Structure formats: C-alpha cells, structure tokens
Amino acid sequence: MEKVNNLLFLYLDNKLDLKQQKELENNYIFMLEVINYTNDKSYYFKASDNVKKKFQFVKLLVYRFSEDQDFIIYIADHFLNNTNSLLDTFELNIILNSLFKDIDTFDSQCYSLKAEDYYFQIQFKLEIFLEEEDLYIENISKFSYFKELFIKRPIILNYIAKKMLEEFIFYNKDYTFHEIVSKIMDSQYRFTNNLFNFINKYDYSLSCYLTSNRDILEELEKEIYSLDSNLFLKKENNIIKFNFLTKKID
Question: Considering the entire predicted model, what is its pTM?
C-alpha cells in the first residue's frame, strides 16, 4: 500500500518518466486509486484504452459519478461499444436503467429496453434448454437455474427476480391484477407474507430468494402503489391509500 501511495503522489506531481506513466495508466486499479483520491473524473481520459474497456473500472466510475449523466453515458457507451461480454453488457444496462429510472430521456429508455431484451433472451434460451431436456416448464423452478448461473452476479440476479415477480403480478394467467393485489397486499399497499405463499405456487426458488432479499420488493411496492387505474382511492391522514377492503373484486 505504501508503494502504491508513493507512486500515486509521484504520478500526480508529474515526477515519473513517460514509460512509467504509461504503465500506470494501463493499470485500472491504479487509475481507480488516482480518481478516488483526487475525485477528478478527468483522469479517466488519461487511462489507456485497455483500462477503459475494463468492466470493473467503468462500473465503479458509473456509481461514483452517478449524478453526472453526460459523463457516465459517455464512459458506459464507450465500454458497451467495445465489449463482447454478454454478462457485462447486461449488468451495465441494468445499472444504468436503475440510475436513470426517474429520468425520461432517449438514453434512459434505451438502457431499459436493452436490459429487458437481454432478460427475454435469457428466458428464451432457458425454455429452449428445458424443452430439449424434456422437462415440463410448469413444474420447474426457472429461478433456480438463473440462481445457479448468476450467483456471482447479484445485480443481474436481483433484476431477474424483480422481472419474474412483475410477470407473476402484472401478467398472471390465473388471476386478474386486482385479485392478486387483494391476496398479497394490505390496505396500505404493503406486501404481506401472503406474497411468498402466492409466488411459491409458481416458483418456490424465487419465493425463498425474496424472503431474504426484501429490498427487491420495495421498488415494486412503489410501482403498484402508483397505479390508480380502476382502483378506488381515499385520503386518510394526508396519505393516499388504496381501499381494497371496500372494493368488490369482479
């Protein structure tokens, strides 16, 4: 660590020869150290092209400078245009979609659509695999396959869990949206333990995963709460709540 710090200060003070400087600028860990110490994103442009193509380098900078939309779009697009890694591309699009979810721009829509596209590609490939293995998809926990594939990619796994959960709630073949809501949420639009019993009917592995990853549910709660189409609303203590107790389910 002391050696790294010494090099860091020598680099920042321009006391290294050109060869040493170029070697360090080709080391993504060192360049992250420089940027973290100085909080100066302009050092990104001094990094070698190889470093700019490192997923961990770009990912950490996207998080660090998440409020600078133009900068993170620039570095993300440079990476996405120069990588052949499906998983890195999928994960970065998920991250960007998450950062821009409240911003309605062309870029934010592109990242959202690309993340969904990769998700549907993975779903399709899994269904093809299950059919080739002569397995009945209805009786298989698809999420258990995803968990095995992406256990070291929690961002991707959480995204898949949320997308599957959305499908069971919004596009369920057995129940209407209103019927599902009345089963799994209370009158203040919070998920109850009935959610896990409901999901368990379709995918036991996903249900288990959600019990220990409840943060996935928080965003979905807000999305459902924001829906007011064909639902009765009432105001109580200055909080808008959905009154399911008095609503008749068709």
Answer: 0.81
